[in-house]
């Protein structure tokens, strides 16, 4: 499929997407039954969902579900068909929506609004490892934005945001430029990003990915942009409700802000500044329903399109946002990134660790080397890229 542009499907035995449905989802449901005091009804509903995805046909949401209308449109033509005939992007997204429904998240009951992944997120956020990472911020020097030190600091924070909890928040500036925990980036657009922001300070949209230890470096990066004047305002886009296990919601965002404020040293200073930026309106947290849609950004609604069009830069974080940005298809890896995101209404950058099949914007030599030396490079999580169309 390397040279095709077919949608990524999940019913191909042995594929990464097949493993998500046949291995990851059963483990997830088992883990929820271990971590949470589920009722017999909830356990039955989760088991039925798992069976439906693997052997049944796609059922619509109940008519009285608060988002039934949206999902009727998002799933048009898919209901009543076997799950295996739906694309990986759509099916995985709908699985998580149905999982919340099985637990009663949207019902008026005791589970209403309870994040089933919340306990795991909280344990990560308040673990001892985070204390050490936040302390690492004390080792980062203050540098003027236009100086060599300021550029190195910005690169370090951008790279820490890219790698999430795989990179210490105090990511050492002495690490080789363009490198990360597993070696050089496959694409490095950092210099272009900094030049763009320096020339056009304005409003930056950052579309977040995961909560907890991965959202903290995102917030530190946001503080750097605001504190140095590279951004006049930042809109942080998060999910309106739990999604894909660890995705960030508004509640997760405010928990991270409190975590920063309760730290010491530089981390506390970052937390205090961000707290004031929220109060002043320079940092806005937004949770648009489309953030949990099973569709690519080419199909975004007009209000979200206007938001991104007015931004000096939109930064897309993480693997899922990358798939939605470039299209979850078997593109040739050498397809130019600018072509893949030509539909996007404004300047856009992607910070992405590779954890799925989709990849664009690589040179032919890099693709050939990876294919020869590491056949699973697209999904191993060992490689990353920073790409921009400005």
UniProtKB/TrEMBL annotation:
Gene3D superfamilies for the chain: Uncharacterised protein PF01937, DUF89, domain 3
Native source species: Streptodolium elevatio
Pfam families, sorted: ARMT1-like_dom (PF01937)
PANTHER family the record matches: DAMAGE-CONTROL PHOSPHATASE ARMT1
Name this polypeptide is given: Damage-control phosphatase ARMT1 family protein
The protein's required cofactors: Mn(2+)
Keyword Manganese recorded: yes
Keywords: Hydrolase, Manganese, Metal-binding
Family as reported in the entry's similarity comment: Belongs to the damage-control phosphatase family. Sugar phosphate phosphatase III subfamily.
Reaction catalysed by this enzyme: beta-D-fructose 1-phosphate + H2O = D-fructose + phosphate; beta-D-fructose 6-phosphate = dihydroxyacetone + D-glyceraldehyde 3-phosphate
UniProt KW Heme keyword: no
Annotated Damage-control phosphatase ARMT1-like metal-binding domain residues: 21-366
InterPro entries xref list: ARMT-1-like_metal-bd_sf (IPR036075), ARMT1 (IPR039763), ARMT1-like_metal-bd (IPR002791)
């Amino acid at each position: 499929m390397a040279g095709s542009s077919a949608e990524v499907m999940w019913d191909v035995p042995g594929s990464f997407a097949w493993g998500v449905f046949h291995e990851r989802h059963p483990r997830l449901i088992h883990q929820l039954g271990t971590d949470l005091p589920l009722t017999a009804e909830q356990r039955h509903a989760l088991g039925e969902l798992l069976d439906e995805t693997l052997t049944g046909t796609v059922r619509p949401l109940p008519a009285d579900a608060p988002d039934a209308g949206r999902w009727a449109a998002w799933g048009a033509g898919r209901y009543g068909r076997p799950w295996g005939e739906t694309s990986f992007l759509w099916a995985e997204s709908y699985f998580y929506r149905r999982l919340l429904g099985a637990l009663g998240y949207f019902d008026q009951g005791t589970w209403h609004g309870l994040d089933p992944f919340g306990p795991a997120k909280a344990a990560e956020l308040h673990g001892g490892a985070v204390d050490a990472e936040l302390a690492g911020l004390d080792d980062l020097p203050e540098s003027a934005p236009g100086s060599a030190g300021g550029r190195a600091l910005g690169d370090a924070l951008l790279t820490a945001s890219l790698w999430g909890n795989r990179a210490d928040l105090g990511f050492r500036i002495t690490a080789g430029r363009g490198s990360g925990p597993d070696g050089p980036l496959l694409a490095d657009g950092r210099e272009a990003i900094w030049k763009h922001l320096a020339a056009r300070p304005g409003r930056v949209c950052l579309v977040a990915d995961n909560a907890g230890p991965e959202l903290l470096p995102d917030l530190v990066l946001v503080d750097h942009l605001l504190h140095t004047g590279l951004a006049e305002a930042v809109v942080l886009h998060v999910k309106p409700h739990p999604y894909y296990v660890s995705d960030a919601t508004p509640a997760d965002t405010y928990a991270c802000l409190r975590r920063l404020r309760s730290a010491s040293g530089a981390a506390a200073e970052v937390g205090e500044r961000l707290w004031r930026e929220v109060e002043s309106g320079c940092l806005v947290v937004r949770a648009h329903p489309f953030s949990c849609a099973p569709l690519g950004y080419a199909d975004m609604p007009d209000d979200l399109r206007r938001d991104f069009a007015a931004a000096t830069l939109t930064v897309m974080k993480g693997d899922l946002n990358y798939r939605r940005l470039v299209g979850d298809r078997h593109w040739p890896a050498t397809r130019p990134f600018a072509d893949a995101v030509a539909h996007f209404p404004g300047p856009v950058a992607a910070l992405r660790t590779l954890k799925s099949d989709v990849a664009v914007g690589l040179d032919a030599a890099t693709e050939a080397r990876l294919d020869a030396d590491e056949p699973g490079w697209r999904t191993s999580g060992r490689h990353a890229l920073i790409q921009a169309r400005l």
